Amino acid sequence: MNLDGRRITIILIVCVIAIIFVIRLFFLQVVNSTWKEQATALTEEEIPLYPPRGIIYDREGRMLVTNQTVYNLMVVPKKVQPFDTLSLCNLLRIQPSDITTLFAKAKARGEYHRPQLLVEQIAPADYAAISEQLYKFEGFFAESRTLRVYPQRAGALFLGDVGKISPGEYKANPYYTKQEYIGKSGIEKAYETELRGIKGIKYAFRDNVGNIKDQEGDKEDQAAIPGTDLICTMDADLQNYGEKLMQNKRGCIVAIEPSTGEILAMVSAPTYDPNLLVGRVRGHNFNVMTNDAQKPLFNRATQAQYRPGSIFKLAQSLTALSVGAITAQTRIHCNRGIIGCHGNHSYDDLEMAIVHSCNPYFREVMHRVVEGNRDPKSRFRDARLGLEIWQGYIQRFGFGTDLHCDIPSVKTGNVPGVEFYDKWYGKEQWAFSTIYSLSIGEGEMLVTPLQMCNMACVIANRGWYVAPHTVKQIGIGGKPREDFLVRYDLGIDTAHFTTVVNAMEKVLQPGGTAWRSALKDIVVCGKTGTVQNAGGKEDHAVFICFAPKDNPKIAIAVYTENAGFGGTWSAPVATLMIEKYLNDSIAKSSEAREKLIFDANFLDR
Amino acid sequence: MSSLGRQHPLANVDWLTVIVYGALVIFGWMNIYSAAVVDTHPNPMDMSQEYGKQFLFILISSFLGLMVLYMEGEFFNKFAIYIYGLFILLLLLVLAIGTTVNGAKAWIQIGGFALQPAEFAKIGVGLMLAKYISNTKAKFNNWKTRLIAAVIIGVPALLILLQPDVGSLLTFVAFILALYREGLSGNVLIIGLGAIVFGVLSIITGFNKINYPFFGEQSGVFILMTIVFVIGLVFMLMIKNFVVPRNRKKLYLITILSTVAAIGFSFSVNFMIDKVLAKHQKTRIYVTLGLEEKEEDRSEMSGDAETAEAADIVIRSKNDDPGYNARMAKIAVGNGGFFGQGYMQGPMTKNKYVPERWTDFIFSVISEEWGFIGSLAVIGLFVFLIVRLINMAERQRSQFSRVYGYCVASIFFLHLLINVGMVIGLAPIIGIPLPFMSYGGSSLIGFTLLLFIFLRLDAERLSVFR
Ligand SMILES: [Zn+2]
After folding, report:
1. Nearest-CA neighbor of A551 among A440, A461, A450?
2. How far is B152 from chain A (nearest CA, A)?
3. What total of structural domains would you count in chain A?
4. Over the stretch A454-488, which tens digit does the pLDDT of each residue have?
5. What is the pTM of this model?
6. Binary contact (B183, A3; C-beta < 8 A)
7. N or C, which end of chain B is more exposed by having fewer CB within 10 Å?
8. Structure ipTM
9. What angle do CA A13, A14, A18 make, to 5 degrees?
């Protein structure tokens, strides 16, 4: 048998196998990149470095929101070795069943090898004692986390809260991971981008059992950029005082510095300590407050929509003067046939009509604005043309808009116009007589207290406003957002304001509807209002004002729900706020009023 | 003795082979260090660590190799049968007093070290085969010769199967390649290879239970048997239609016999695994073939992975997924790229994803850290070594040396084939070492002796006719 060829055959077999291997290796290592991606996914861990969230100060530099480090006690069930259950439970103040339940849950979720949360938010003082013992318990470790704390315990809705990101927010913003925290309301939400800073990345290796190791590699870690501190527009003392005045009441106070649009205080009552919505108590308290009939989480200052009431007569006056429907000297009979009135007067001019809040006067004022004989052939068409002009003016005050403010989820209210009534009654099916209740601030018109306060600012400034906002400086010494440096001018002649301001001054003078609330040394201009509400309950007491008359420093709107007459219950609140803000103290002469307000309770009405 | 007179023992030694051997051993050691290094023990000669021990094994191997070179080649011819007998005894001994590691009773504990007789048994078989063939001038066309050769190979193979160490067992196929060179019919080679592939296929299909119509839940191997039966039928039909009548009878017979043999073989393989082997042996075989994982904590991992991140799923699946080791090895190899991640810098290696990284999977460490270039170099060195050994075997005047040389080359080839094939995903996970490179005293010393005995025989090629 000739066996010479067999050497070649064997060598060929060896070479063919080797070539197959080399080709396979070439495809694995050079051609196909998915293996490299898988390797990276397996071995590399990008650990996010969370920057500290920005601190929020009030306008005087008092700390309103800051961060506190707490510790979460974690356990990886799979890594746990037999341990002294009793001493661990004593140390952590938990029951042995807590551990077994947690382990069972982890097993059911298929997360036996992942860190599980055993005890949440241990205060630093408690943690010190725990950390000394913790090394004895294999598989247990602590993770630090920062929480928001509110040293002033005030301004909950103004400042807002921070909570776990919702699926919707997660989808909308690729910056976040599923476990992150995000501003949910107030400044925390509006200035989320500034406050959160920028996450850093620490590159690390993860080994086959999930241990994380520092990576000394070519990838450089990215340091986290801390959040920007904010100086907000709030005056913490004023806010605190406002909250105290509003205790045991439903309603709200909005105080704005007219020249800047800075919101000095924004109270929504009943209020709550913002620290209640932080950390381990958050979930429980959130549920309790959501179900509370008094709706403490509802920001009445920006989300409650009320009928404007008598106060709306101020905007009506200015509109009519500007349109030329009346002059300051126009007198109108108090004809109580169509619409009621109160008080002893019969033929007021504009100033006195405002002081007396004369309903027939303002019915006729609006009548002249809306039916201006622009279309002599049809009073229906005439009313359409007039209402359009009227609506345009009213919207300039900011009614029906979000005021360009920086407060999340504000309501816009409603300024009914042609479109609205066409839908309601049908085209050319309505005239002034159909819609006249608008003239005295009733009817389909809806406003928010913030809008009302803004109107007070407009009058205080004699014709313009700056969008109300909550943050004065982004970064200490910084500027507010650019849109808050812009004035919105209403295009109404400054002269027209004189009559209105004078009338408002008289409201707090003897004979005026709020004369009891007048201040000794500060000239306050105001207007009372009473807002009827459905359900047959007591009316809402409303008051807006600004002070001082010249060079105003503060404008205020106060709503006290179901309290009755605005002059009795809301005006004193407003003037006490002014006193507190401008004088920094409450005069002896005001103390009786203050006590009356403190003691009043309208919660059960 | 030779007319050329007594030469220096190291004269005529094939130094090129020694250099290749040295390169593989040193490179292997470097990569063992990379795979196993512990931060607290950075010294490569630290005896408490694998790399330190491997260094010791290298020293012992070098010493033993040199000793072999100084011995008389004649010794191995004369004492082949005793050496063979000694290793058979060791294989019997290991079954009696061996320690079980990973389910195989394959180790004899001597002091601090464990000896794996299977790694040495190949030397005995190689020498014994060479001795038998050269003494009897055996012709492989008669059944007696085939039978005796089969017994020489089969006895240690059976003992290894009883451990059971399927990996080592498979490397015994190497001897068929050597016998092929000595005249064993090529058909035997093909049938042998076919039997292995078919056997592995039978075990894999037999591992799964399938719910058959009418018969209920039965072993999946019946599907394989059915396929074989259908193929047999197809052949019969083809013979009937395309073959001239006078040849038909013979072909019918061959087809029927091979179909029956194949079905019987696959049945008996499964029968043996199911009924003859103990449970741990059975598990061991399944583990070897990647059908089962060693870790038993699978039950721990269940529930949905919806929220877990992608990488996390991979970690968890380690326990769910019988293909975990194979996939990790492949990812490591692929992660090497063209130039590699750099020595001591393979993320898959450093972070312990690669299983058995300093023993059976050392090649994936090399591939990850040295890239395609490194893998190519290692395969190149092995191919060079194997081809050189074959050519060296061919230049022997003595048939004993030639047969032994072929045995050595074939064993290295089989190890390369199975080990690298397993790492790069072309072969099932069968735990056998990569010669000279994998960590392990028994395998390094065994392969060194295997190679150096041949180098000794080769050095005397001009002076002896055996
Ligand atoms: Zn009147």
Report:
1. A461
2. 22
3. 2
4. 999 999 999 999 999 999 999 999 999 999 999 99
5. 0.70
6. yes
7. N
8. 0.86
9. 115
